[in-house]
């Protein structure tokens, strides 16, 4: 399918039918309409052919992680799927497992044995309501001055982001990355940049 045929399908046809959410809202400022969407496609990066541009964002990836206690995890990201922005999870433990997606989670206890399915409610928003939940919790934490509401702290957030950067380094460089060493190197680089900026002041 040529890009000329793809634009109406992805952007223009939905706007003509009154839709103004994602992905149209991501490429323009203000309310998407035929005029500003057309202009954004004509002059901006979203109008470029993905195969002929300098876009180097990976469209599929498998990341294997080994934790210090020997447990392992694998993360698979696939761009080409009908499950747009949906997540699936499988967690396997000694005494049971949890298998789920954006709407259902099945918990199995191997010891009983028993299986129960949960249907969490979503109040809408991206990623199964996760985006809305994150923002609501952040606002509550700020309003009440309670860090514990977040269920995490800045240190853990930084470590999670460093893990993602380590996975990207592994993908680009074709090597196994030790996350502890990666964090040390990142902190050293940031510290050097801060020192240089202080010297420049």
Chain-wise SSE layout:
Blueprint: H1 3-16, H2 34-43, E1 60-66, E2 72-78, E3 89-92, E4 96-100, E5 105-109, E6 114-118, H3 130-144, H4 154-173, H5 179-200
Helix pairs in contact: 1-2, 4-5
Structure, described:
With 201 residues, this protein is α+β, with helices and mostly antiparallel strands. The chain has a domain at 3-47. Helices cover 40% and strands 16% of the residues. It is built from five helices and six strands. The strands form two sheets. A four-stranded antiparallel β-sheet has the order 3-4-5-6, with no helix packed on it. Helix 1 (3-16) runs antiparallel to helix 2. The chain is globular. The chain starts with a helix and ends with a helix.
* SSE order, one letter for each helix or strand: HHEEEEEEHHH
- The portion of residues assigned to helices is 40-55%
- Structural class by SSE content: alpha+beta
| Shape label | globular
Mean pLDDT: 87
Radius of gyration equals: 22 Å
Kindly state the number of beta strands.
6
The largest sheet, given as strand count, sense and whether it forms a barrel, is:
4 strands, antiparallel
Quote the beta fraction: 15-25%
Distance between the termini: 54 Å
| Uncertain residue segments | none
Number of helices: 5
């Amino acid at each position: 399918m040529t890009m000329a045929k793809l634009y109406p399908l992805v952007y223009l046809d939905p706007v003509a039918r009154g839709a103004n959410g994602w992905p149209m809202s991501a490429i323009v400022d203000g309310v998407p309409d035929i005029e500003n969407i057309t202009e954004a496609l004509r002059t901006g990066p979203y109008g470029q052919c993905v195969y002929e541009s300098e876009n180097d964002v990976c469209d599929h990836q498998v990341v294997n992680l080994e934790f210090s206690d020997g447990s392992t995890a694998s993360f698979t990201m696939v761009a080409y799927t009908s499950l747009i922005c949906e997540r699936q999870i499988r967690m396997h433990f000694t005494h049971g497992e949890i298998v789920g997606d954006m709407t259902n989670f099945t918990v199995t206890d191997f010891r009983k044995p028993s299986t129960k399915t949960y249907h969490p409610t979503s109040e809408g928003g991206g990623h199964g309501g996760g985006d809305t939940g994150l923002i609501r919790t952040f606002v509550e934490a700020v309003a009440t001055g309670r860090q514990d509401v977040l269920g995490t702290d800045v240190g853990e957030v930084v470590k999670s982001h460093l893990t993602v950067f380590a996975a990207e380094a592994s993908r680009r460089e074709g090597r196994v990355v030790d996350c502890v060493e990666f964090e040390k190197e990142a902190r050293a680089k940031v510290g050097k940049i801060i020192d240089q900026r202080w010297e420049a002041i």
